[in-house]
Design brief:
The complex is a heterotrimer of chains A (225), B (301) and C (225). Chain A contains 9 helices and no strands. Chain B has a domain of 56 residues. In chain B, helix 1 packs antiparallel against helix 9, helix 2 packs antiparallel against helix 6 and helix 2 packs across helix 8. Chain C is of the alpha/beta class and 225 residues long. Chain C has one domain: P-loop containing nucleotide triphosphate hydrolases (Rossmann fold), CATH 3.40.50.300. In chain C, a hairpin with a 2-residue loop joins strand 8 and strand 9. The longest helix of chain C has 16 residues. The two termini of chain C are 28 Å apart. The chains are: A mainly alpha (225), B mainly alpha (301), C alpha/beta (225). Chains A and B meet through helix 8 and helix 9 of A and helix 7 and helix 8 of B.
């Protein structure tokens, strides 16, 4: 158990350090997120009466696209110079690598969300009518739902021919309950019309089920040639 | 075996003609919907067949994954037995019985739960080794076809009767759509994966899909309670003659589905034998060794 | 042939490795003594790299078994050190940073071992330059350093001398000689048999996925290298 957390921490620190050094990925991701928000603003009139009802969906679609672009980069560094082989050959537990990558992606996507949210608030003049604090568990649980499966499917896609398209293809169907939870929950809080309590529980259940599944099956995926 | 197939095909064709006649002519006209309702005899049996096939794929995928390690296989077998026992016992508890939707009998639930270990061990016995994976692939492909029929006949039925093509809160149709998406992505993974371990990757995806389905159901169910939706397909009881025709049609669809699966399975067996033979030739080939030839099996499943 | 107990040897038993229709290894059977330097030679496509990867546990045999000191390659991972044609290092980090990370994967604390190993391959531990900017010779040395970091008893080296200047190549041969003398078992896949003449204990010749000969010297009847 000791070695699992040591390996996870070492990998996470290494990834953050590498990401910080070559800020290309970070910068282009930030700009991409801004562009997505702007496109949505032009497509869906922010002054319309109904906007509060659809903003929940718009925000999460924007987050989903940003997350997919980020997730596709998950294993890019490990593929260069076949570093993944060095990991496979070592006694380090496979789940250490998985958790580190998932947490790294989680932090990255949360940063993107933190940057995109104020833009949505500004462009759509959002006032939250329901309990605003509930948006935090929804955001955290929802992001983890996307990221944990995304990291897993990104690893699965490594062995496929069309890697970049394979990830969203595998991720989207399985993520549908989580997306319903995120969007319906966010809309419920923004409009204040319903309680988001059930959706938070749904997202929590989803996260527990799929985190367990990922941890159980990652070693097999890692060692697939 | 080869002689059996044409006979069964002929019998199935006759059966299908008979049940179609029953569905289109003999079954009574619905009081509310008129003759349009008859599409139910294609829509519902397709759905039940698709779900059965996806269920088979799930069991086959779990077994395939379990077989990768001997210790894992034993654990999974015990878990499956435990699920069966616990499931049946639970249906006798009053707390569980009160949770069941109206009209669903505890014995029906018990039999359904028992299907899990029953299928697990039956399939395990009938499909050793690599054949389990072939079964999974076959079930997925044919399941997707039947599922497509469900998704096409659903809106066709909904439009004239309820005035809308689709209702996002319709729990059955939407869950079926998600199931279809998951299995199409499963088939795409199989096609585009260049790994030696494609089969294991696909089995893992099937497990993810199966875990997802109850969550989809749950999420849409709650969404619907907050946003009342028209219920397509109606609930309530059915005229016994209609039910009789429905079940007959399902039997016919199952026979047809079975034949299609059998052909597809045979095709997969032959395909892998050819690949194996080619690999053996490449293995035995080279300047020095004698060439080995592998006779393709002519009989078999 | 002297009978050696399974615990002290590396046994390859009728190993077949197929990639789809292509058979890279066609029934390789051999027993290798420990404490020896085995050079593996052959034309391109003979299966040398595949055999090495199978020994490392990176390519599971389609048929047959490999036992390393009575364990499977994955179980014996602590005793194996693997060096491949790609560097298996992160280009954006310095040599020391790379080794520090890999040390964590093997549960090695502190910088001492990393510095020791970098010096042993003839490089400077304080060099802050990222590995991506190294010359080929330096990169190969650092890659070797990573392979020997955890002091493995068995080394698997895939073309360590390729594209490397003569000086670096000779240094590496000297290093291998020293390691063999200290009791390590070394497998070297190479095209440059002459470099190891007099150093290797045996030369294993492969052709079309099989071992066709095992000689004590670098010249084979009819072959001119």
């Amino acid at each position: 158990m000791n070695s699992l957390w040591a390996v996870t921490l070492a990998t996470l620190v290494k990834d953050i350090r590498l990401e910080w050094r070559s800020k290309d990925a970070l910068n282009s991701m930030l700009f991409f997120s801004l562009l997505v928000v702007v496109i949505f603003v032009f497509s869906f009139d922010p002054l319309a009466e109904e906007s509060r009802h659809i903003v929940g969906g718009l925000v999460w679609i924007a987050f989903l696209f940003a997350a997919v672009v980020a997730l596709n980069q998950t294993w890019a560094r490990e593929l260069r110079n076949q570093v993944l082989d060095a990991y496979r050959v070592s006694p380090a537990p496979a789940n250490g690598l998985f958790i580190a990558k998932a947490v790294g992606n989680f932090i990255f996507v949360c940063v993107l969300e933190a940057l995109m949210t104020p833009l949505f608030v500004i462009f759509y003049n959002l006032h939250v009518l329901g309990p605003a604090w509930q948006l935090i568990p929804i955001a955290l649980l929802g992001t983890w739902a996307l990221v944990v499966n995304g990291t897993f499917f990104a690893a699965m896609s490594l062995r496929t021919r069309n890697r970049e398209i394979m990830l969203p293809l595998l991720l989207f169907p399985v993520s549908i309950p989580a997306v319903i939870g995120m969007v319906a929950g966010t809309t419920a809080i923004l409009t204040g019309e319903n309680s988001a309590h059930f959706y938070i529980v749904l997202l929590l259940t989803y996260d527990v089920v799929f985190t367990t599944a990922c941890l159980g099956l990652f070693k097999t995926i890692l060692h697939a040639e | 075996m080869k002689k059996l197939f044409p006979i069964l095909a002929l019998l199935t064709a006759i059966f299908l003609i008979y049940t179609s006649y029953q569905a289109l002519k003999v079954a009574p006209t619905d009081a509310l919907q008129g003759d349009v309702y008859r599409i139910i005899y294609y829509h519902v049996p397709s759905a039940w067949t698709a779900f059965l096939l996806f269920f088979i794929n799930f069991i086959a995928s779990v077994q395939y994954l379990a077989r990768t390690r001997a210790s894992l296989q034993k654990t999974v077998q015990w878990v499956v037995i435990a699920i069966g026992v616990a499931g049946v016992a639970a249906t006798f508890l009053p707390q569980v019985q009160s949770l069941l939707p109206a009209g669903m009998r505890p014995s029906a639930v018990a039999t359904t739960v028992l299907a899990i270990p029953a299928f697990y061990f039956l399939l395990g016995w009938l499909f050793p080794g690599d054949r389990m994976d072939m079964l999974a692939l076959t079930a997925a492909e044919v399941g997707v076809v039947f599922c497509t029929i469900v998704l096409v006949t659903g809106p066709i039925w909904a439009r004239p009767v309820w005035g809308i093509w689709w209702a996002p809160g319709d729990i059955r149709l939407t869950s079926t759509l998600v199931l279809w998406l998951i299995y199409v992505s499963y088939l795409v993974l199989r096609r585009f994966s260049s790994s030696a371990q494609t089969q294991i990757l696909a089995a893992a995806l099937a497990v993810f899909g199966a875990l997802d389905v109850p969550l989809v159901y749950l999420s849409i169910w709650f969404f619907r309670t907050q946003h009342p939706q028209p219920v397509i397909g109606g609930g309530g009881s059915m005229d016994p003659r209609m039910l009789h025709t429905l079940l007959l049609n399902w039997m016919a669809f199952l026979c047809f589905g079975f034949l299609v699966c059998w052909s597809r399975f045979r095709l997969e067996v032959l395909k892998r034998e050819v690949e194996g033979a080619e690999a053996m030739e490449s293995l035995a080939g080279g300047t020095s060794a004698a060439k080995a030839s592998l006779p393709l099996s002519r009989s078999g499943r | 042939m002297i009978e050696t107990p399974a615990q002290n040897s590396i046994i390859v038993s009728n190993v077949v490795k197929q990639f789809g229709r292509f058979a890279a290894l066609r029934g390789v059977t051999a027993e290798f003594d420990t404490g020896r330097l085995h050079a593996i030679l052959g034309d391109n496509g003979a299966g040398k790299t595949t055999l090495l990867r199978a020994l490392a546990g990176l390519a599971a045999p389609t048929q047959g078994t490999i036992t390393i000191l009575a364990k499977s390659p994955q179980e014996a991972c602590r005793t194996l050190g693997y060096m491949a044609h790609p560097s298996l290092l992160y280009d954006e980090m310095s040599g020391m940073e790379n080794l520090r990370y890999f040390a964590r994967l093997y549960g090695i604390d502190g910088d001492q071992r990393c510095e020791e190993v970098i010096r042993a391959v003839g490089l400077d531990p304080d060099l802050a330059r990222p590995v991506g900017q190294y010359s080929q010779g330096m990169r190969q040395r650092m890659s070797l350093a990573r392979a020997i970091l955890h002091d493995p008893a068995i080394l698997l080296l895939d073309e360590p001398f390729s594209n490397v200047d003569v000086h670096s190549a000779r240094d590496m041969v000297g290093l291998l000689k020293g390691m063999r003398q200290s009791g390590k078992t070394i497998f070297v896949v190479t095209h440059q048999a002459l470099l190891l003449d007099g150093v290797a204990d045996e030369f294993v010749w492969m052709q079309e996925g099989r071992i066709v000969d095992r000689t004590a010297s670098a010249s084979r009847q009819g072959d001119v290298l």
